[in-house]
What does this fold into?
Amino acid sequence: MAKQMKVTDDHSIRVGPNTQLIRAGYSPFDYHGFINPPTVRASTVLFPDARTMETHGQKYTYGTRGTPTTDALCEAINELEGAAGTIILPSGLAAVTVTFLAYLSAGDHALVVDTVYGNVRHFCDSMLTRFGIEVEYYDPSLGAAIETLFKSNTKLVHTEAPGSNTFEMQDIPAIAAVAHRHGAVVTMDNTWATPINFRPLDFGVDVSIQASTKYPAGHADILMGTASANAKHWHPLQQAHGELGICGAADDAYQVLRGLRTMGVRLERHQASALAIAEWLESRDDVARVLHPALPSFPGHHIWKRDFNGASGVFSFVLAVSRGQNFRAKAQAFLDGLSLFGLGYSWGGFQSLALQVGLDERRILRAPDDGPVIRLQIGLEDVADLKTDLVRGFDAAREIF
It folds into this structure.
């Protein structure tokens, strides 16, 4: 999708997403022409006089309230998301939890999709419950039918599309329309797609959340999260961020900003390789089914095709097992048979990863019962080599009876 970018004071040009990623958030001539922004590390910031200090009458006042480095990242994310403001946090989980705390109070009711990231569920079931906030989980397929779950005290609806591990799609515009009729805030974890492939705020979401750990950073060595709000909901988010004092570090912000510059071309490779492998897996007898929104066979494919510009490199498949076989033993044999795929959490980096996902905590949706669910992160390796490695895993699993 082309983006209009201001080039001088009197004219503008339209640019594509990769050009936008290269330029967003920072002008080299703000810092003597250096193409990357400087890393400004700060806690204390000095004021020129007592009056300026008393009134906070300058742009920077203390390290927790931002530096030129963290501002450069926030401005880039604002542009990509179409947001009024962005906060940066030390992790994707922190981005979700601070967002919840910005809009929820004791006595409120929140609707959270049942396919939510597992650690967010833990936060809801422990801390939010302890704070007197009622959390209700809902089926991601509800769409406008979510209206039946609203109460007079429903203040927030949290979405995640595709859903964690099993990749169910959600009708975000329909959910947002219902939520807004009831005066509720709509938040979305958009880590899978990034704003390159889906811009939540354009579809009615109020706060778009990313684990920048994944594709923006891109190299499996940074933890960071962002939350970006529209104009109506920016102030409470900004205020909560300041009051909680949970902020991202300048060095990490620099690395994420550097990663953004190549995120578009990396996403293209992740998407193409993952789709090629997903289609190949669909043809194998070792696989019961493939859970990838970009496949026409996937139940939510029509929503993905309608709303999204592309996909990423993460999807799952159900390993085929015979009746009476041990799911865990089959899955572990498959994983232990791999050599190019690393066994590790997270995703979005350059190396391919695999793991068996646990779905026992879900309240509404049943986990697949036709075999263990294996999640793959398809990295930047050659597709042929990854297919060969997966065959090694299938061969190892076949030895387990």
